[in-house]
Design brief:
By secondary structure, the protein is of the alpha/beta class. It is built from 15 helices and 19 strands. Helices cover 30% and strands 20% of the residues. The strands form 6 sheets. Strands 4-19-10-3-9-7-8 form a 7-stranded mixed beta sheet, with helices on both faces. A hairpin with a 4-residue loop joins strand 5 and strand 6. Helix 9 runs parallel beside helix 11. Bound molecules: zinc ion (2 copies).
Length: 417
């Protein structure tokens, strides 16, 4: 189908209209890209394309969704809506239907359609490539692979991609790279390499690329490891730009040091605090950062939610949590949902967020910290909310509230010149 004939059309999804792209439009979520990473790499002369884009296009700041974790933010970006609308409030949650703690990585947990699905249904060619497979099923929700106009796969399981399930077979041959390790910078490089190949082979109308924050968890801005990673990003962003794409780059969340001077993680073990306050096991601490990739962060982040028995004194719990050094804020379910636009049935009775250099745990024994080969860097709280939004086009920024990261498709399709 000649999708050029649709230029001028608009596609509505989740309460917002998007303009049909006149040229392939690529939104990139650079996982954990705390402001400063790109700038330090540019200062060393290692990111000439980003340097040029940020001067001639748009160099904006946006805010992430809270919790500043991967799944809630990626799903906000791909739906253009906050968790209250799409239902994904963490990587991990307590399913009220079963009382079990489960990963929130299945499409059945999503309550909204994606922007990609809406465009694909309207006749567009769309693609999504993610580093970790945990996101693939969510990003690909509702895509009709039989249409021949949808591609969605992960770098992690690129060797298993099929035409029927992913819209592309032999992904390793197609990309021309070996299967990358799940804990590697190459996992993200594979995403970019795939994106460039997809643009050249299929000229998709809309594409979403989502990397992993393996490097950002291990290496601060300005370090050699980080600079090498962003030099790689710069190389591929340059290729997408050269191919005529509109490129819009943002992040799911930032990243901060979360350790003591001796390198040990700086943790408040909440289950211990609450066991002392209420009795052993009365409260149930859920850490929505939890995922199978423990080497990144040992399930230690700056956002936690707590389930309490009906008769528990919530005020006392909240006041106790607020009094802990390093806690930024604690609030009940209603206040958290109002402030952070969260789905109230997917979080506990109390929400607590910790500060810039502090993380929240359950009990020490529950955390596998064996993969933390570097002093802990993590995210989840308000201090990791600020993220970049960079485009290779100028942006007509309307007066009004600042951009959220999940405005990235809106900015790229509706506001970019
Ligand atoms: Zn992330
Ligand atoms: Zn992370």
């Amino acid at each position: 189908m000649n999708t050029q004939s649709k230029v001028g059309a608009r596609v509505a999804v989740n309460g917002r209209d998007y303009r049909w792209p006149a040229t392939p439009t690529v939104a990139i979520c650079l996982d954990g890209s705390e402001p400063g990473y790109i700038e330090r790499t540019i200062e060393r002369g290692l990111a000439p394309n980003l340097d040029r884009l940020m001067r001639t296009g748009a160099n904006l700041v946006a805010s992430s969704v809270i919790p500043s974790f991967t799944n809630p933010n990626n799903i906000s970006i791909i739906t253009g809506a906050p968790p209250r609308v799409h239902g994904i409030a963490g990587n991990y949650f307590l399913d009220p239907a079963t009382g079990e703690e489960v990963m929130m990585n299945e499409a059945r947990f999503m309550r909204a359609d994606t922007i990609l699905k809406a465009f694909c249904d309207a006749g567009a060619t769309v693609a999504a490539v993610t580093a970790k497979d945990k996101l693939r099923a969510l990003l690909a929700k509702g895509l009709d692979f039989a249409s021949g106009r949808a591609i969605a796969f992960s770098a992690e399981k690129a060797d298993q991609a099929t035409l029927a399930d992913n819209g592309l077979a032999n992904a390793l041959d197609f990309v021309g790279m070996p299967l990358p390790g799940v804990y590697s910078a190459a996992l993200s490089e594979f995403v970019f390499a795939a994106g460039v190949k997809i643009v050249k082979a299929f000229r998709p109308d809309l594409m979403y690329l989502s990397t992993t924050d393996y490097v950002q968890h291990k290496a601060p801005p300005g370090s050699d490891v980080a600079n090498a990673f962003y030099a790689m990003v710069d190389h591929y962003v340059g290729q997408l730009d050269e191919a005529g794409c509109v490129v819009a780059l943002t992040a799911d969340h930032g990243m901060n040091d979360k350790h003591l001077a001796d390198g040990e993680p700086d943790v408040i073990y909440l289950q211990d605090v609450l066991d002392r306050l209420l009795g052993a096991g009365v409260a149930r601490v859920i850490l929505p950062i939890t995922d199978p990739y423990v080497a990144h962060h040992g399930a230690l982040g700056s956002f936690a939610t707590i389930y309490l028995p009906k008769d528990a004194d919530r005020r006392r719990v909240i006041d106790t949590l607020k009094s802990l050094p390093g806690v930024d804020d604690a609030m009940d379910n209603a206040a958290a949902c109002a402030r952070f636009e969260l789905p109230s049935d997917r979080i506990g009775d109390v929400v607590v967020v910790s500060g810039r250099n502090k993380v929240l745990g359950a009990t020490r024994a529950k955390h596998d910290l064996s993969g933390l080969t570097e002093p802990l860097r993590s995210h989840g709280g308000l201090a990791e909310r600020k993220v970049p939004m960079i485009l290779n086009r100028r942006v007509a920024a309307p007066a009004g509230p600042a951009f959220r990261n999940f405005d990235v498709f809106h900015v790229a399709l509706n506001l970019a010149g």
